[in-house]
Amino acid sequence: MPESPLTTVDYQRRDLSIDQKLALKTAATRLQTEFSTAFGVETIERFLHSSYDKFAGRATIPNFLPLLAERFARQRLRALARAEGKITDGKPTVLFLCTHNAGRSQMALGWFTQLAGDNAVAWSGGSEPGNEINPAAITVMAEVGIDISSEFPKPWTEEIVRAADVIITMGCGDACPVYPGRRYEEWVLDDPAGSDVAAVRVIRDTIEARVRHLLTELEVPIAG
User: Which PANTHER family match (predicted)?
Assistant: First the structure.
């Protein structure tokens, strides 16, 4: 059964504060402005609504929920546009997946975004998303000038997988999605959860080397 669109009735849900309702309405307006040529209002609001629900059960700061929902809905709508051929820029698209989307996949995304710049597209996700990014991962990435502190653990969704040309998995095993026609790689890396900063630095540097190799294989020039 398809998810219901974010109608006026949905905005009156009892689990939403007045501020959250207003924030979601504002987010819907921004997304409609951005994606009006690609999708109808119902699709845009449905993605915003379902994105909100994916975070609602584990948010530590409820007032941030509308912002997280808007950011994730925007990513999902961009992915859907790619999957449906509404974005045809020819840029390679990579999806990094691990279990909690809190350490390895976030560091990989950070490196890829830094090194590829506007020459390629990357996303990350988790089979069981955590509540926050691993602080040690934030610290060691900041040491090399990459800020991942504004990222957040999120799940993978069907449209994001459909849009990816390459799917890099890191320890999520059978929980990781398998779609035909995609290139898959498993990167065997230690899980940084519970490790000290020194150990996470080693993981960071290993990920950098693998991302650089991947970009070379994809014939993506290094930005800058």
Answer: ARSENATE REDUCTASE
Fold of the CATH domain 1-88:
Helicase, Ruva Protein; domain 3 (1.10.8)
- Phi, then psi, of 186 in degrees rounded to 5: -105, 120
Q: How far apart are CA 171 and CA 104, in angstroms?
A: 9
Mean pLDDT over 112-137 rounds to 95
Beta-carbon contacts of residue 93 (< 8 Å; ≥ 6 apart)? 82, 120, 121, 122, 123, 163, 164, 165, 166
Structure tokens at 139: 């610290």
What residue ranges do the domains of the chain occupy? Answer: 1-88, 90-224
Give the 3-state DSSP-derived string for 28-87, with helices as H, strands as E and coil as C. Answer: HHHHHHHHCCCCCHHHHHHHHHHHHHHHHCCCCCHHHHHHHHHHHHHHHHHHHHHHCCCC
Average pLDDT (195-205) is 97
pTM, to two decimals: 0.89
Residues 6+ apart with CB under 8 A from 138: 148, 149
CB 184 within 8 A of CB 111: no
Asked if the domains at 1-88 and 90-224 fall in one CATH topology, the answer is no
Catalytic (active-site) positions: 98, 172, 176
CATH topology of domain 90-224: Rossmann fold (3.40.50)
Task: For residues 202 and 10, give the distance between their C-alpha atoms in angstroms, rounded to a whole number.
Answer: 47
- Residue 168: which of 223, 109, 217 has the closest Cα? 109
